[in-house]
Amino acid sequence: MSAPQPVIVTDEPATGSGSGGPRAESPAPAALPARAKRRGRRVPLLLIVPTLALLVVALGYPVCWQLATSFKHFGMLQQFGQPPEWVGLDNYKAIVTDPDLWAVVARSIAFCLVSALTTVAIGGGLALLMQAVGRVTRIILQLALLLAWAMPVVASMTVWVWLVDWRRGLLNWLLVRLGVDAEGHNWLAEPLSFFVVAAVIVVWMSVPFVALSIYAGLTQVSTEVLEAAQIDGAGGWQRLRYIIVPLIAPVLSIVLLLQLIWDLRVFTQIKILQDAGGVANETDLLGTFVYRLGTGAGDFGTASAVSVFMLALTVALSWYYVRSIMKEES
């Protein structure tokens, strides 16, 4: 009788179909992270494809049509069905040498900067106020801002035109009651007072969005950090300047960038005020200037060239903020 053979126990699990089957080799440790990293890069790209496709469909065709139209001449014959004449860069040469365009550009940039900075300043103050008051007062203030923001532009402009009307407006009536000689004064006849009224209206319509956006950023500021700064002796202005503003700087950059873009292409408010008594030639901004060239004079080629110039100007003014936001993201 032979001696029993010893049983050898190993820690390696059997992986084959039988006792003698080969073991499957596991992938290299570095292969899994590399594969996961490649998959992680593809997922964001796949997620933004629908948005990019929608932007190309919604914006690509109008922009391409406008660019092509800017190289053509539209006159009286084109209103009777004749095809427009290809003129190349003649429309751009005409607008560059047009002094009226540069006067409109200067007015538009000044109006844009003043309105945007004023809107962000007032909106930031209202956001700080909402953070300081109680819950009931804050809800009432937020509802008031939402109602002002949700009001249609034409409906609100009807009220504003009545307020500044030179015959039966509330502004003149109130000034007369206060002892100011404003009987029959037309606030829209002079360019300076016209743009003051327009800026007030634009700021009033834009403040709710800015205030609510900045308030949302303020809610993310840690109260522990502010309490620690207060214990260290920092006053209210120091906490605002050195702690709150740097922490909500991305929100401020976004809302300021959006306001610059919106205020540069403002149209409805200016056009309605012009129809209510303003002098169009002296109060045109880029939006109304393009409208007057295209719809008013039928010169769609020159109007398209000004629109392309307006797009380039918008990119130039907002490029600094876009670059700052990209640096913060990176």
From TrEMBL:
<dbReference type="GO" id="GO:0055085">
    <property type="term" value="P:transmembrane transport"/>
</dbReference>
<feature type="region of interest" description="Disordered">
    <location>
        <begin position="1"/>
        <end position="35"/>
    </location>
</feature>
<feature type="transmembrane region" description="Helical">
    <location>
        <begin position="194"/>
        <end position="218"/>
    </location>
</feature>
<keyword id="KW-1133">Transmembrane helix</keyword>
<keyword id="KW-0813">Transport</keyword>
<feature type="transmembrane region" description="Helical">
    <location>
        <begin position="45"/>
        <end position="68"/>
    </location>
</feature>
<feature type="transmembrane region" description="Helical">
    <location>
        <begin position="141"/>
        <end position="163"/>
    </location>
</feature>
<dbReference type="Pfam" id="PF00528">
    <property type="entry name" value="BPD_transp_1"/>
</dbReference>
<keyword id="KW-0812">Transmembrane</keyword>
<comment type="similarity">
    <text>Belongs to the binding-protein-dependent transport system permease family.</text>
</comment>
<feature type="transmembrane region" description="Helical">
    <location>
        <begin position="239"/>
        <end position="262"/>
    </location>
</feature>
<keyword id="KW-1003">Cell membrane</keyword>
<feature type="compositionally biased region" description="Low complexity">
    <location>
        <begin position="22"/>
        <end position="34"/>
    </location>
</feature>
<protein>
    <submittedName>
        <fullName>Sugar ABC transporter permease</fullName>
    </submittedName>
</protein>
<feature type="transmembrane region" description="Helical">
    <location>
        <begin position="300"/>
        <end position="322"/>
    </location>
</feature>
<dbReference type="InterPro" id="IPR000515">
    <property type="entry name" value="MetI-like"/>
</dbReference>
<keyword id="KW-0472">Membrane</keyword>
<dbReference type="InterPro" id="IPR050809">
    <property type="entry name" value="UgpAE/MalFG_permease"/>
</dbReference>
<dbReference type="GO" id="GO:0005886">
    <property type="term" value="C:plasma membrane"/>
</dbReference>
<feature type="domain" description="ABC transmembrane type-1">
    <location>
        <begin position="105"/>
        <end position="321"/>
    </location>
</feature>
<feature type="transmembrane region" description="Helical">
    <location>
        <begin position="108"/>
        <end position="129"/>
    </location>
</feature>
<dbReference type="InterPro" id="IPR035906">
    <property type="entry name" value="MetI-like_sf"/>
</dbReference>
